[in-house]
Amino acid sequence: MGDAQVYDCAASGCMRVALQAFLPGDQVECNGKVGNITSLSEDRTALLQGERVLLRDCTLVQPHGKFHRITTRKKNVVLADSKAQCKVDANGNGVVDGQRRANYGKEGVHWRLLVAESDPVPAGARVTKLELSVTGMDQGWGGTGDSGVMLYMLRGEEAAGGQQLIEDPVIGVTFDRRRSSSTSHKVTVDGINAAMAPQAGDRFRVFLQCPSYPAWFAHCEEIRLLAECTFEEREEITESLPENWRARSDAAFFRMWAGMGDGEDSSSDAYLRLDLSHLSLSGQRQQLVFSSSSAASNSPSGGPSSGDTRSLDSRLQALLAQVGIGKGGDKVPAATVEGAGRLLGKLEADTPAAGAPPSPEARSARYQPMRQLVLRTLAALGSGKACLAAVVLQHYADCADDCIYRWEREIHNMHDLVTGDSTGTDAQHIEDVVLRLLHSRRRQLAEGLLHRTKGRLTNMDMHFESFFYASIHFGLTEQDNHNNSNNSNNTNNNDNSNKAGRRSA
User: Fold this and answer.
1) Region Disordered: which residues (predicted)?
2) CA-CA distance, 139 to 137, in Å (whole number)?
3) Are residue 223 and residue 79 in the same domain, yes or no?
4) Could you tell me which of 120, 167, 173 has the C-alpha nearest to residue 150?
5) Nearest alpha-carbon partner for 86 in 178, 235, 221, 192
6) Residue 475: predicted pLDDT
7) H helix runs in 133-182, sequence order
8) Tens-place pLDDT, residues 203-214
9) Taking the chain, what is the end-to-end CA distance rounded to the nearest angstrom?
């Protein structure tokens, strides 16, 4: 056994012992007894020397159990190959190799003639691609492309009580001389997923179809269905664990680590690298993870200095004295100042409120972000934004006796108003506000013109509104003007209309 295989087996053994991953054949210790596992069950039990034991009570001693390797191979499988001469006409008359054949029925205006049925999809195969090759054509005139060959899937196994024909075709060939005058056609479909994914035992049926237009017919002479399948094979690893596998554990783990590399540099740890964009300063600052250097100097976007340990109420009183509220400055009612002080006092004392966690520790943790926002707001008011102090105090006072959700909303909004940040859920860019107003005005103009036009024409047709908005472009989606009762539709339509408004505003 080569040195690389020794390392691989040693790494497998070390990892399995570290993770206590059991396999049949492993030597384990359970309740003072040592033995080999005979079998494992899904209920996390094992058969050990004829006794059923719990895996949680077992300790892996020697990982003698064999691993299995899963290998994947691709193979092209011919599911159908027909050389029959087939024809169907506008009256539904079908002929296969000169013999009359009953049609399969009519779907819409098309008569369908069954011309081939495939073999079942092999067991263990996953179909990744289908290729349908057809030799045939229609009567040669008309140019509508209504004739062709359609491939349908027949789901289920015959032994399971019958098969079901899937309603929608998987793939099709169109006979249209305007697209191709050749009688040889080939179409493929890749990545068949979800309900249309073929499964083991499924079959395919090929239909030649022709519309019931006078004098029309379609014919085909050769049909071939090729499936690209992926098979997974389970192979037992025959290498055994070396006697000195524990001594090789360091080298084995080093080899495993080196195998995680990519490219020529096998020692690269690219799979373990951190995307530095996740640690951007702007992102952390937005989440209030840290305060920038400007925050230590009472800047509008920062907070109080790091050495300032005053309470919220004392900071509020200092702000009132600094900006001159109540002393010839802004005329703020005493009730407003008292209400704002009451809110800050509740935050400072972790006072229970509606919506607040009952636990004092959890409540303090919930209040802490709001306290930090208030600190930054007060610092900004004292640094050139004193003109907004009356507004901030009024909003604080209005929500002092409400639930904490109202506290959070008002505190965030006042913080954003004073500092210019966007931390609250109600924060909006001025561009969005202007676009919303323009959009609303444009919609009113469109609706007014619509109703004036209907009045002048005395038109009561229920479809006139759709025709009107389809003929004249206002930069708005037609549905947005009359589906106001559906909130979810309004949201999507407003988003689309805003995009249109951005391009034309």
Assistant:
1) 290-311, 480-505
2) 7
3) yes
4) 173
5) 221
6) 60
7) none
8) 889 999 999 888
9) 74
